[in-house]
Design a protein that fits this description.
Blueprint lengths: L7 E4 L2 E4 L12 H50 L1 H5 L3 H14 L3 E8 L4 E4 L5 H9 L4 H11 L1 E6 L4 E11 L4 H4 L1 H6 L1 E3 L3 E12 L1 H51 L14 H95 L5 H28 L7 E4 H9 L8 E6 L4 E4 L1 H17 L5 E9 L3 E8 L6 H4 L17 H11 L3 E7 L3 E9 L2
Parallel strand pairs: 10-12
Antiparallel strand pairs: 1-2, 3-4, 3-8, 5-6, 6-8, 7-8, 9-11, 12-13, 13-15, 14-15
Helix pairs in contact: 1-8, 8-9, 9-10, 11-12, 12-14
Length: 547
Amino acid sequence: MRQRPKGAARIGVRVFTRRPNMKTKLHFSLKFKFISVITLSVVFTALALTAFFIYTQKNVLQASIEKRAKKIAETIADNSNFNIITPDKDYLNNLAENARKADEDVAYAVIYDINISALGQSHLNSVEISDFLFYNKPDISDAVLFGAKAGKANYYKLKNIDVYEVIVPVISYDQQKEIAGASLANNSIRDDDRGEIVGLIRVGVTLEDVNKKITSSSQTVLTITLIVVVLSILIANIFVKAIVTPIKELVDGTKKIASGDLSYRAPLTSNDELSDLAESFNSMAQDLKNYVDELNSEKQDLLKLKAMLEQRGKELEETLNKIQNIQEELVRSEKFATIGRLASSVAHELRNPLASLKNISYYFTRTGVFKDDKTKKMLEMLSADVARANKIITDLLDYSKAKKLNKLETYMDDFMEKAVANVPLPANIRLVKKFGKFKVMLDPDKMTQVIINIVSNAKDAMPNGGEITICERETPKYAEITIEDNGMGMSQETISHIFEPLFSTKLKGIGLGLSIVKEIVEAHFGKISAQSVEGLGTKFTITLPLG
């Protein structure tokens, strides 16, 4: 017979291995992981290609417009050489305006002499461009710095328009000093040894068309990218489903076997490694079924032995409970007998003299023989002490007597109204009543004693005033009474002993009040419990059967 592995447990036909101290972790399915990896790869690649295409397209368009702008500026420079030296402003204005009209992307064209004075310019379509040209004049040093062939170029972003600007020098290769005069010759700048810089050409080309083309291309590429990503996800889902479905079937099979269905076999749907895995799984399931059948056979024998042991255990437990009950009953009977003998003796010896003292106090009070306040106070104290002594005797007698009930069908709201009326409450204590209209079988006199005792204790627990809440409610089988105060409360140690005979936290009293309460409630086949928190208050709950 094979040995069961260590750590294995069995319940019916379930066999599993315990893995202690396992922490719950976030679980992602294999399908989710496959699709996520493929999708992220496709998205990353598509975005990279899109960014590269947009970047390349932008550079191509910008290079094209830069080339056009420089070509226009160079053409103007080639045709304005002599007229700058002359100078012929009309010709230069027409030359600049014709350059603007020849290309719709040209925003402006300005021709400067060597002193950066505008000799000719194209028509300006906006005040914004006019202000820009006025406040951002070129410097002749730009021509020296960049040279005749290089020129100077910049991108400017105005408020309503983006401009690419080219500044190229105008080079004179002819000796024009005699024509231009000594002043012009002195101010001219040599460009190496091949000519003189006599002016600057400033051409600005708007980027509006380029930006539109870039935006349109970007939107088209992004749309294509989105379509490619969606199609890739769909294709990946189909591809992953073909791989994950057999694995999911194996997972479902392990769950079924773990739940006890050892007859499950994984289907062989392919001719690859997954099919080999399914075949191994089926072989394992068959071996496990054979093993569990052997265990179940042993289990039946063990169950029979267990049933015999449980039966003997129940018999021993019942015998032990009977012995404990008999012992508790003997102790209880002895306690009752002792208290009964003590109560009878005390009642016989003390009640007659107590009655005499009470009558004497009453007589003196009524006749008014002692009229001073101190004597009156002493007589009142005497009466109170006699009443307290008489209550102690009554509690002893009540506790020692057997609880014989005289049950009557009673409406709970009427009963509670009469019961709480027997407890005088000071003005600083508020009584909240939440009574229900339903019937209960109880002994009104005995249960009144219960209510008086608990409400009196609640009053004593609130020397500075407070609130007592009494609630009644009906359940399908029981009537529930709760009496709650917000007084001083009790510790858990005190709560565990309050229903024990002769246990008291008060300086005056012998600790039989709540013991009598418990006896009366249990005589009604009910239950009583208490909850308390020091400094917050105490709550008593009484449940009585409705019938």
